[in-house]
Each structure stands twice: as structure tokens, then as C-alpha cells.
User: What shape does this take?
Amino acid sequence: MKKLSAIYHLFVYIVSVCLIIVVQSCSENPVLTEPVPVNVSIESISPEHPLKIGEKFQAVLNVENLNSYYVDNHILFNNIYHFQNRVSGDTIFSYVPYMPVSFSNWILKFYIYKSNVGGSIFYEVQDTLDVLPEYCATGVCIKWSDLDSIGEYDSYYYPEFYGDQYKWIAESNNDTITLVLDVPGSDEGYIETKIKFLDNDANILPEFVELTKIVYDFGAEWSDTLKSGIIKIQDWDTSSIVSGIILAELVSPQISKPVPPTRSIFWFDFSQ
Assistant: This one.
């Protein structure tokens, strides 16, 4: 019995020594694995037909070999940043902004990023977007809408948060129609968008007079006017409903000026 016990202890000792040697060997000569490359691609863009100016679309991204990442809600059209987008998971919801160009294959770029202690790492993916370009030679053009139908709810300022608290008001002064939308700004400030038309009678396109965006903030005021864009009118009857979509030219933002809305919906019912 003592002989068997001695053999057992000797066996355990030998196994322990072997394990120690193996562990030391692994620590001194670690096995290096090649990093798996991150792959970001565009899975789909829909709808698949050539898109009109102002038309909505959605893009689905596919990300491989990366955990805990975020999809940036800023995208680039022809290398100009566009900010009015919404992200849900790996899907980006956007629309085609107005750009006074004649070519139809627009460069579209998306970004995802991963936050680290030392900063964020960005990954870029791009594709071409098939667009039906529209060019307005006179600066701001007015035409009948060729986009999906809009309603009063669409014109509210973030209705999912504020309901109908911030909506357009309008007044008529002879043939001049003025529509105004006031929305919250930073702190005690607010932002006012004012657009004026010259009425030419019901169901006839009005004439554009001006659009001004004013930012009131900390007692200061910044303003800018719409100089280039397209306004797509859906309804025009000053005894009933006037509505449409404002599509300002997509430009690089200037710190000293508020950017006119690149897509804004107005809607007002004069009969109420």
C-alpha cells in the first residue's frame, strides 16, 4: 500500500513539473494571431429607382468583425456634410438634398465609429446614389411637388416630442402670404423661419419672395436668407390649404450664419 502511494505521488509530481514547463514555454513564446480586419459595406439602398430631389431613402450598413460600434448620423453627399438624418441600428434614414449639379451619380459616404479611451476610430464606406438632378438657374425655383403626399403632422417641429406645440402660422396682406415657424433654440433662445410668397390665385403656383432663418441666442441675433433651392408646392389655395417642401441647397455650414433648412415642410389651413 505504501508502495502504491509513493508511485501515485511520484506521478502527480511528474505531471505538475510538465505543466509548469508547458506554461513557461507558452509565456516565453506566445502564439501571435493576426488581427481580423473590420469590414464595412452597404447592404442595400432603397428605393432602388433613381431618386428625385427631396425624396426619402434608407441605407442599411453591414459591419463585420467589430463590436460596440455606432453609426454616425452625418453622411456626405458629394463630399459635403448632411446633418438631417436619422439612425436606427444599422439603418440610416435620409433624403436627397438639393445640389445644383447636372450629373446623376452622386458620391454617398457613411461612417461608423468605435469609441476608445484615446478617442474614436472611424470607418468609412461609400457608394454611388442614382439621382434625377434638378437645376434651378434663377436661384430659388418653385414647382409642383413630385414627392410623396405630406400632411399637417409632417410640418410640426419634432411632433414625437412636442405634439402640435410648434406649427406654422400664416397671415395674408393683400397678395403677400407670410408663413412663420418659431421653434426652441439653445437655452432661452429660439429659431424663426419665415417665408413669403406672392399669391397668384388658387391652384396656380405662387411667386417666391424670400425665406429668412433667424437665430436668437443670448441676446444676439444671426440671420441668413435662402439664395439657392427648390420649393415644391403640394397645395396652394389661400381660402383653404397651402403646403409644400422647402429644399435649400446643401452647402458647407458657416459658423457666423444659420443654415437655411435643407428640407422643411410647411402646411397651413386658412379655413380654420
Q: What stands out?
A: Helices lie at 2-28, 152-155, 159-162.
